[in-house]
Each structure stands twice: as structure tokens, then as C-alpha cells.
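Figure 3 (text version): C-alpha cells given as input.
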């Protein structure tokens, strides 16, 4: 097969292109109606009351950390097996990141390891938890919520890998990633290799109205345009000592606005939102395809020891990634690349990045995560992966292991 096979790939249709072109021809390229349309549709998709579109998933994490008032010295727990942004958002606010080890079967943040950290520290030392729905597998946030409530902690769910994913709660009800029933805030990414692509882009979901309103400010420089919330007087806004009403509907002039706290320009554009909305219409179809691809991989390798817990067919799994654990990971990685199959490694443990090593983290601190990293490899996984392409991947893996 001559055509390269990446581990992930966006799928852009004519409908997507038409949606973007239509927006480019409209009156708004940013801060227009497409943003609210995308937010409403996405909130409905994940069953959340509120959704805030932002420039990317990292911006979403940063704003969430700000909204939860992370302060210098605050300790926040997260997993080492994630993209660095899940941890870095705490550092952006001056907080301290504490990594807890993963469950060897699910690769998710191990709640028992988190409990150990909390039990072995004075109450109040830790402020929050950032669990990650790694590879598309949903963290059981009901259990984490109970633990968080016990220690008065907030939860930010990093659901970048798992739109459409869910876990089943104690009442046998499906709890979709980002629905806000257990986490204070949740975030998603619309990077091209994710389920929904908008070039770059992110979304924050929540059921908390106050957090929602603050996020709207923070994504736009901390600016408020609501006279009921203004702090300066109408006289100041008008620029005169006379208490004149500029128009019958408002005490403040039309140009007036206030920056009430330090925010950022983390806005999504309207044409990105148009692309995201168009992609969202096919989200369930894409999820179905990912699960079909998973079944074919599983059937091909189910008798092999490199099939682990995450490699099975799991209800509620959104399958952003399909991960194997092999003994000769470097050999397989290179062999696949020689055959134009561009598998990927997810992830180098965050705590062993030089930045976090300089803070005192070292090899041996999180042995399960470190062992996972030595063996993990992510196979091609995207909805438009053709059967002949997947068969070629399977064939080359079998060849490498001399089958």
C-alpha cells in the first residue's frame, strides 16, 4: 500500500466546506451568531446546560483553572498519562501539580492512588482533581465526586478524547462525558485528529450558571457588557456630571463596557464554529465507525498478550485511540513506519518531562504509568480508515511478530 496511513485524520465533507464558505461570506467572522449556535448544539449533544466555545483545548483548561480560582501554591491532582496541557493549566495559575498513578487496565487516573494522596495529607492541602477520559474511556466521575466532596475538592473533567463517551452510574444510567452532573467543569478539543474538527478549537461545559458567566468574561479579556453588572456609574460612563439618560432603554451609552478582571482573548471564530457545528452533525456516525474499527482490531489480536483492558470492546468508550502494549515497542514502531503506517505514542508521562523533573519528579515515582509508557503504541484510528487500510495495519503487525 503506497498511501501513508496516519494514526488520526480529519474528515472534511462538502457540507463542511459549504458551512465555512457561507460564514466567510457573512457579516461576521468572529463574535457572531455561529458561536452561540455551536455552543447550544454541543451542550445538547453532551447533555450539559451551558457550553462556552474557546480557541483550543488548552485555552479551555486554562480558563477552567482560572474559574476554579487556582492560586499560587494550590495543589491539584491529575494523571501523568495525558497531553501536558492537562497539568500545565494548573501551572499557568501558579498552582502545584501532583501526579497520581494510573490503573494498569484502564489507563485512567486511579482513584485509589488519589485517595492515598488525600489521606496522607492534611485536609485542605489539595484543591482539585483533573481526571482525563484517556483514549476515549470515560472516568467514573460519580466515584470521583464522592471522593471530592469528602475532601472539599472541585473537579475539572478533561474529556478531549471522549465526546459521546459515557460511563454507567450506580443507578444504571448512562452519564455522558461533559454532562456536568459530577464535574464542576469539563473541556473538549476540536483539533483535527479529534472526533469533531474545527482546525483548532475547544469547548467548556458546565451546569453551574455562575461559572458559565465567569467563563464568558474570561475568554474575552475579562470584559463585561451588561449594565446590571457594571461597577462604574452612568455619569462616569457618559463622561459628564449630568445624570442624562443616553437612550430610553439604557442608563449607559452604547459604546460602554468594563474590564472587571484579567482575562484573555481565547475566542473561537465564527467560521471555525460553523465547521464544528457541521462536524457535530456526524458525530454519532463517526463514533459508530470508531467502534467498528475497534471490533476488527480486537478480533484480530484478542488471543495476543498485547491486548490489554483498554483494547477490548467497551461500552461507552469513545475510542479516540486504540492502544496496544507490546514488548518491542520501538521495533514495531519503526517497522510500521517503514511500511508507511504512522502509529503514535500516547503519552510520554508528564512527570518525566524535563520541566516537571526540575520540580523534583523522577523515574520510579509512578511505576504503573512508566511501565505503560515503555510498551504503549496507538494504532490508526479514525472514521474514514478503510477496511483494506486496517487489514494492512493488522497484516504488518502480524508480520512483525512472525505470525
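Below: residues designed for each position.
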Amino acid at each position: 500500500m503506497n498511501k501513508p496511513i496516519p494514526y488520526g485524520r480529519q474528515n472534511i465533507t462538502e457540507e463542511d466546506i459549504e458551512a465555512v464558505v457561507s460564514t466567510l461570506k457573512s457579516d461576521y467572522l468572529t463574535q457572531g451568531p455561529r458561536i452561540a449556535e455551536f455552543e447550544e448544539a454541543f451542550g445538547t449533544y453532551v447533555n450539559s446546560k451551558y457550553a462556552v466555545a474557546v480557541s483550543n483545548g488548552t485555552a479551555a483548561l486554562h480558563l477552567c483553572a482560572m474559574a476554579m480560582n487556582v492560586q499560587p501554591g494550590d495543589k491539584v491532582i491529575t494523571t501523568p498519562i495525558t497531553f501536558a496541557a492537562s497539568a500545565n493549566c494548573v501551572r499557568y495559575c501558579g498552582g502545584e501539580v501532583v501526579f497520581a498513578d494510573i490503573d494498569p487496565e484502564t489507563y485512567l487516573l486511579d482513584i485509589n492512588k488519589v485517595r492515598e494522596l488525600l489521606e496522607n495529607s492534611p485536609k485542605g492541602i489539595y484543591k482539585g482533581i483533573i481526571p482525563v477520559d484517556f483514549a476515549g474511556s470515560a472516568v467514573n466521575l460519580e466515584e470521583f465526586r464522592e471522593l471530592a466532596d469528602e475532601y472539599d475538592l472541585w473537579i475539572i473533567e478533561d474529556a478531549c478524547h471522549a465526546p459521546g463517551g459515557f460511563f454507567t452510574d450506580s443507578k444504571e444510567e448512562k452519564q455522558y462525558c461533559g454532562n456536568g452532573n459530577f464535574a464542576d467543569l469539563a473541556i473538549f478539543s476540536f483539533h483535527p485528529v479529534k472526533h469533531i474538527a474545527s482546525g483548532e478549537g475547544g469547548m467548556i461545559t458546565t451546569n453551574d450558571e455562575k461559572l458559565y458567566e465567569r467563563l464568558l468574561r474570561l475568554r474575552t479579556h475579562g470584559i463585561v457588557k451588561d449594565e446590571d453588572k457594571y461597577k462604574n456609574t452612568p455619569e462616569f460612563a457618559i463622561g459628564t456630571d449630568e445624570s442624562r439618560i443616553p437612550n430610553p432603554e439604557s442608563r449607559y451609552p452604547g459604546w460602554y463596557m468594563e474590564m472587571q478582571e484579567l482575562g484573555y482573548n481565547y475566542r473561537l471564530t465564527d467560521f471555525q464554529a460553523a465547521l464544528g457545528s457541521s462536524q457535530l452533525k456526524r458525530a454519532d456516525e463517526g463514533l459508530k465507525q470508531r467502534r467498528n474499527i475497534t471490533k476488527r482490531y480486537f478480533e484480530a489480536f484478542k488471543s495476543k498478550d498485547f491486548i490489554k483492558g483498554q483494547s477490548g470492546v467497551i461500552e461507552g468508550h469513545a475510542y479516540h485511540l486504540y492502544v496496544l502494549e507490546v514488548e518491542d515497542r520501538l521495533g514495531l514502531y519503526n517497522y510500521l513506519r517503514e511500511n508507511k503506517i504512522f502509529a503514535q505514542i500516547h503519552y510520554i508521562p508528564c512527570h518525566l518531562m524535563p520541566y516537571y523533573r526540575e520540580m523534583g519528579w523522577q523515574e520510579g515515582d509512578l511505576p504503573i504509568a512508566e511501565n505503560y509508557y515503555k510498551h504503549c503504541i496507538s494504532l490508526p484510528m479514525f472514521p474514514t480508515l478503510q477496511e483494506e487500510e486496517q487489514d494492512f495495519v493488522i497484516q504488518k503487525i502480524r508480520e512483525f511478530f512472525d505470525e
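The domain at 5-221+263-280 is CATH 3.40.640.10 (Aspartate Aminotransferase; domain 2).
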